[in-house]
Design a protein that fits this description.
InterPro entries: RESC6_dom (IPR058917). By secondary structure, the chain is an all-alpha fold. It has one domain. Helix content is 67%, strand content 0%. The N and C termini lie far apart (32 Å).
Length: 116
């Protein structure tokens, strides 16, 4: 359970994250951020939309970043078809030998959840 000051800091940083300009995140940082949002139960449609927009400006996703981004959106019950298409394209461009079993499972599970 978060303390009052931790909740205040988290809330302030969540708000700030929605205003980071394009180019302010790399794929791993953005993935960690959206994972924190989903774990904390952040329910802010505009914030997830902004994260999606920023993600689609990035071109350096590896298999783990694709998997974690898809999984974070799936855990948050936020389905953005445009983002999923973008991330699926990123996934298809990654050589098979660069996949771990975990990243493959997370991607397939996330796509299946979006198809429900």
């Amino acid at each position: 359970e978060l303390t009052a000051s931790e909740r205040a800091a988290f809330g302030a940083l969540v708000s700030l994250a929605g205003h980071v300009p394009d180019g302010g995140f790399d794929s791993h940082s953005l993935t960690l951020l959206v994972n924190a949002f989903s774990r904390a139960g952040v329910d802010d449609e505009r914030l997830y939309k902004r994260v999606s927009e920023v993600a689609m400006t990035l071109d350096s996703f590896d298999s783990q970043a694709v998997a974690n981004m898809m999984n974070s959106f799936a855990k948050a019950d936020v389905f953005n078809p445009t983002l999923m298409t973008f991330l699926s394209s990123q996934a298809l461009s990654i050589p098979p030998e660069q996949y771990s079993a975990q990243s493959m499972v997370l991607i397939v599970t996330s796509i299946a959840k979006g198809a429900e």
